[in-house]
């Protein structure tokens, strides 16, 4: 079976078991404070397990793009060295939300693997949770009995809490799991050592392929476990490992999932994969053919390489690949981007988004490669200078913090540093490096540290109703709240059953406002609670308050009034609609390749990142600005359509943003269907005239292929124009209100440069005069001519000019000058080069010595050196000393 057929068979199988097949969520996690990237199939369904939402079906299956390079799951350092861990991989999964449980999950897994995929039964092993006394969780008898009926006792392994008990996080749903492992060794190897003894022992050919999780408990913040009201199934099977098993290979990289890219690498490098004569070349090909997937799909889903957070993770993966290519495959020029088209073709029917953005992804990677290849060279130089410095001191171990700096700043993985070190007969301080790494990890953990209590549930509710498109104020109930300690203090997170508050999403900031409890009269338990932000955590709307001691008020509240800050919201609306008008205008003026790469807008400003490969010229900006303002003046009414089936919307030509996760039904925001037609969940003005006016304030580059513009609207735009007007008026005043302001400023500039020239000429004259007196008063000796003199010159540079000009006039000159320039003492020492050569005198050393008297320091060359200091009263002493010396 090809990998395509294998994936399709999985989805078809579960469709036949009445599962709804859904698309993969984007690789980049949104609205989940605990995750940067989706790292398992269940991540997009978290809310359903937490009870914050209702799934579209109680049975779901899919293939999910996963990335395990940070946080709880980080496999990065293994990738390429082993043959079955990837950065990005597909996780095939089937789910039951309160529907079937262990019996069906186990039976179907077995049916699929052995009947459909025809994996040999005698090569499969399963594991069952052994129980844990401290947690009070018993041995999973149910799973054991079910498996016993299928595979027999001797193929079952007992597993501990680490391998066989799954938890969503420190708190939340959890339960025992059952893993399925496959033994892919040769018959001879199997005869020699039993597969059972190799399960969970890091054997590359005895690997876990599927994990079936049975959610039946909830862990509370105090560590205790309580049974869940309804039980769920969450399974995850590594697609690439499954392909290896079915295609009877011993490495994921030998399957058709990776062979396409590996073949291109063979052609580009002229090396053959798997010949074993160059193990590092093989590792490099694995690393590269793995990493190109992670990098390409992350960029496609909206995460560009950058210097912070998730962007930095992607940049590091990219650099790891480029570096392996550079060191082991001889790629001195960019090559990595050449693999993008291969992947786009391979995944065109599965994850179409890569094909749609092929050119953009290729260019972003190419630019990143170019800049890293430059860094790489400076990193290699840095390593050179470190090792030669150490060699001088007779040390042959590179300290851990240097190794860390190389990896952190130059993207040099430790193994590369170690390898280069070895070539130079050095070793690295591995422990010191680990310490530096641990220290950094500790710092970033502390930065992220947040402590939350359990939710305090006040009443039953059935999902949250967002009413903010239609209302600015609602009557609501508080359904639950929790306290969270953050770096800046304590905050309350409050959840309402219905709310007008928009939660930060799609670039639009969250609403602020207030909750009014029990009328407002204090004596009746009334209270006003200030809401400073509204955030989404998965599908939950969280109203954030920094008010103190709210527990009693919140618990005792009946019906409350939730009210947003309307003035602020109106400004936000203007900025959001303006962003839509701007995007359409940009596509008209710059071309349809312009697509959104990031957006942020609040009540003050709108910021927009978009794919475009050159600077937007002033003329283009003006055209876009004109077009937006034209549309504002047309006062186009908002046409908002809710609950439109997504396919219908896309077919009608609506603009969607890559990497956003859309539901089956979407909201359309239209301002003239011929002009602006977008999928959007944000809030908008009822008609464009409300925006007033639109004005760009900046344009620049964010990263390769991505530009950023900032703009303001309405009141803010007016404010900006006022400010500019004021500045202009001030300048006019200062220039005594000339009739032509520009001419007046040009006149000033001209005058200034004429004056500068005059000053320079005068100074020169002065130096010429000074020279004459100096030569007249020169001390002449048989072997040299000496001038030691305090002089009055305008700058330190004049000392140099003076010395050099005297040299051309006087033979065998030694000249020592002192000067006070702007209150600070300066010294210079000049010694004719023939004297330097004959006597070994050194101006640099002498000036350093003399500088002690002016409390300063300096240096230079043997024939000319200068020093500056802080104590001008020492100048005379220094010059006396110089006289004595010579
Ligand atoms: P392992 O112990 O092999 O790292 P895991 O216990 O981390 O696996 P799970 O979190 O249970 O794996 O994920 C479910 C399935 O996803 C695994 O059975 C495996 O087939 C696959 N898988 C996990 N991590 C990776 C990875 N880095 N690359 C490819 N497949 C993976
Ligand atoms: Mg793992």
Kindly describe this structure.
By secondary structure, the protein is α+β, with helices and mostly antiparallel strands. The protein is built from 26 helices and 38 strands. The strands form nine sheets. Strands 1, 2, 5, 6, 7, 8, 9, 10 and 11 form a nine-stranded mixed β-sheet that branches. Strands 14, 15, 18, 19, 23 and 24 form a six-stranded antiparallel β-sheet that branches. The termini are far apart. The mean pLDDT is 92. The structure holds adenosine-5'-triphosphate and magnesium ion. Magnesium ion is lined by residues 73, 75.
A few lines on this structure:
By secondary structure, this protein is an alpha+beta fold. The chain contains 26 helices and 38 strands. Helices cover 40% and strands 25% of the residues.
Keywords:
binds magnesium ion; globular; binds adenosine-5'-triphosphate; 886 residues; six-stranded antiparallel sheet; 26 helices; nine-stranded mixed sheet; alpha+beta; single chain; 40% helix
